[in-house]
Amino acid sequence: MKDTPMENQVFPSVLVVDDNRLQRRILEDYLILAGYPVTVAENGKEAMKLFRSGSFQIVITDWVMPEMSGLELCKEIRGAPSTSAYTYIIIITSQESKNDIIAGLEAGADEYLVKPVHTPELQARLKSARRILELEGIRDRYVEEIKNLSLIDPVSGTFSRKYLEDRLPKEIVRAYRYGRPLSLMIAGICDFNGLITAHGHYAGDQILKEVAERFTEAVRKDVDWVARYSEGEFLIALPETGVQEAMIVAKRLRLRISSKTVSIMGTELKLAAIFGISGFNAHEVKQGMTMDILIEKCDKFLRTASLLEPIKGVQLG
After folding, report:
1. Which of 107, 108, 139, 211 is most buried, with most CB under 10 Å away?
2. d(Cα 233, Cα 251) in Å, to the nearest integer?
């Protein structure tokens, strides 16, 4: 029974490696008939070049070949820089001893076939390969989802502190590369702990969501970004923006926060925010600016702003 392709089913790509032209042709014909995209190589060295330049989910390789054996090819593939997709390796061997089979598996092969290759056995190995690749794909998607979730603050919906610590150094590098300014601001919700004490943690969460939404809507999409910095504070990154311009942005955001109330369980709460701003122009400042320096300055000016009257709660440096 042939492993015929199902309608709309996408089969994984296969790299066949064998120095025997007849064996290579037999495998190629069967795989094409079954619906697999196939590329062939005559030896391990050629196969490795194809592997590095292409994307193959399954590799079927003979063990004994000139220049580079199937065993060496397995090791090379497993030692190559990792890609997002897993490669399932089937090694074909005339060696039936347990020691040889173990050597193949330890080299990185997932399965083996003994010569002469029987079609039903090959079909079974390919089905196993597809199941494993499907499970690997599910795992990779799950890992990616978890990673993405870790980059989003679960309460406010802005980027997380982890995202901030990864992205901000890259913004500094980019500013230096193009000789452009970069400004940061830390925005603090006034008396946030007092609001939680008076109205509860649910109210605190709703306040964070509301403030985050107002900030996100007011900054430039796909240029500026907002991240949760601490309990009642957000960091707003403003690429291509000098500190004087950032101060104007802060005043606008401050007005946006105070311009309307937040309704919590029938109670209308009026909010206020204070801002600490720092920044640099990479065209004027020598290499050496760091995330820690910028944040420390922001934090210092935020604390200064907290001592001022609410209407003057913007401080920069």
Report:
1. 211
2. 16
